[in-house]
């Protein structure tokens, strides 16, 4: 796996590349930017098998869906407490990859240089029956997760 460091762009990585990056780099982090309701009712990536936990910081608040104006500040505080440096890999995940891309761009603007968007997100796209979690994303790939 080769992830570019120092590039200001946010790249898209699949869930398998994300798992590999989280496993191989001790200070890499998974940042889940979904809402508390999603964490509780849909589930959370379980990084326990690799001795980590997902960093949970809402990009938008529920139910009003307003972007948290202090998101970057709050996340930077969480990352600092974990010993994360500006060049460490940060993998951003949401339901399907849209909010996480915007959140990753906000952290690039805040000075973090290795931000990656998890393509497919936690639940992936809708399937032919308009359900998520079966076609792509973290859950469909069979990566560890637990109910919040």
What does this protein structure show overall?
The protein has 148 residues and is α/β, with parallel strands linked by helices. It has a single domain, classed as Rhodanese-like domain (Oxidized Rhodanese, domain 1), CATH 3.40.250.10. The protein is 29% helix and 14% strand. It is built from 5 helices and 7 strands, in the order E-H-E-H-E-E-H-E-H-E-H-E. It has helices at residues 15-24, 36-41, 71-81, 98-109, 137-140; strands at 11-13, 29-32, 44-45, 55-56, 90-93, 115-118, 145-146. Strands 1-6-5-2-4 form a 5-stranded parallel β-sheet. A two-stranded antiparallel sheet has the order 3-7. Helix 4 links the parallel strand 5 (90-93) and strand 6 (115-118). The protein is globular and about 40 Å long.
